[in-house]
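Take a look at the protein record below with the fold in mind.
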Amino acid sequence: MIELIWAIPLIPFLGFVIVGLLRDKFPNPLISIIGCGVILISFLLSCGVFKEVYAARQLGEDGIFIKEIFNWFTVGNFSVDIKFLVDPLSSIMLLIITGVGFLIHLYSACYMAGDPGFGKYFAYLNLFVFFMLLLVLGSNYLVMFIGWEGVGLCSYLLIGFWYKNSTYAKAAKKAFVMNRIGDLGFLIAMFFILFNFGTLEYGAVFTEAGKLPMGDITLLTITLLLFVAATGKSAQIPLFTWLPDAMAGPTPVSALIHAATMVTAGIYMIARSNIMFTLSPVTMQIIAIIGIATALIAAFIAITQNDIKKVLAYSTVSQLGYMFLGLGVGAFTGAFFHVLTHAFFKALLFLGAGSVIHAMSNDQDMRSMGGLKKFMPITYVTMLLGTIAIAGIPPLSGFFSKDEILAHAFVANPVYWVLGLLGALCTAFYMFRLLYLTFFGEFRGTAEQKHHLHESPWQMTVPLIVLAVLSVVGGLLNIPEALGGGHWLANFLSPVFKQTNAIVEPFHMEHSTEFILMGASAVGAIVMAIFAYNKYVKKNDIPLADADAPSTGLYNLSYQKLYIDQIYNTLFVRPLNALSKFLLRIVELSGIDGIVNGIGDMFVSSGKGIRQLQSGHVGFYIFMMVIGVIAIMLYGLFTV
């Protein structure tokens, strides 16, 4: 099956081409069959690839395969090949992208059924998956960069899918611009890698990087630039504000971006480059600090949001912060474990929110909801499981992955653990707040909305059920030794982190300490769930309307998202707009256009003047000829 690795990204690309070109000729059912079918085929191929990697690992081998597709170009001694790398890390990413991606495609077939851009939507969705597969399969930074840029383009197309709404179009533009800032870091990092190592191939780069001493300035520069790229793609401080605005796109797109594809790219890139980051302790410290700060700020904002999708969006930013905290303290497996479990429960929660929005006739304000569990029992139960999972309550998946990150954070610096625990408590509170406001109490919407409340069709509920099951059992992949597990995921991924494991102290924590940390985290999450129940169900403390909400204090600070967008507008957007207008009016219109048009006008005027000489009167021509002869004679007289 490894021989067919090229087909895994190619098939979704063919889906994009076919659906994109023939979308106006094909009926919607055929478009959805093609759009979903190509992802399903890629998923089945990915299962076959994973099976071979798994078999190799069972035999004690590394399970690493490199497949050359074709030579892209050669300049002198420098050659760039399109090669695909299949190893334990990329094989799991393939399953996440195509598996969760297929469920989101299936869900979309129903969710987007009435949209006039149905074919265009599926074409974009297939293209998104193609670029993400390219990103994780590349065996060098150049192929990764192509996929990196491609998912950025697709996010722009899908976030601004309903582009006639100017707010949505602005959200797409914001995502595009903020990602370009990070992408510049990636581009410069590639130049540094090429200049210092002479190649962009992972294997050769990591071998040479491993020979450099700890704290080497070259590695520090490269890793800082790569981290800048990761902050853009994975929405970390200061480049995180585009992700909540990305809610402008259709809800399944939010699920795809937030769970299975784009935002995980930064974590994947750092995990792939683990040896370079391990040898750059300063960068690791910065990553850990940025990660925990992002987790806390996003959780603080999520507490007061009333748009159901906005709560989930800030939740994603916060969970990504946890993953970066894990990377920063050297818990590469733990961070990737959280990528895996997060893909399950975040996709579930977004699709569940989409199911609610579908029933509420596109109303996303939780203040208008309430009491939906009796109308939408499947959506309620699955979202309940997703909420328990993300809140970190045992034994669901989020508990195990988040606990592994927090345990490593405790060993690295207990302050990280305290802050991480604080963020986890906030997570439990705002997620159960979302659940209670949506599904408990009395319905607060209009009579028209109540009349149309219903459970979603099977195309939407089946993905919810599958993702709910995965959210429940996903944590079994890496149960810690303290609970009788064998760290299966860590063992499976160990060839990817072989160089790092050879130079760092193995992680160790007394089981008694680990039990205390796990107990504190679990009890804290349950207490927050009870606190939220008491506030929003027993006391029916429904959030106030915007006009009645307090305009000062912590609530307002959280509700206004710390005024970060306003600060960015003041510091960057308005000055750049003013500079653009100056360049347009003074430099472009008055300067460049004035000079160019002036020269053109001069020649036009000259032509008009000279044209008068061609009057057609023979007498005038003879007169001019005489004048000419006289002028030549005078010239000869004065120059002899």
In short: The chain has two domains: 1-139, 140-543. DSSP finds 26 helices and two strands in the chain. Strands lie at 65-75, 78-86. The mean pLDDT is 92.
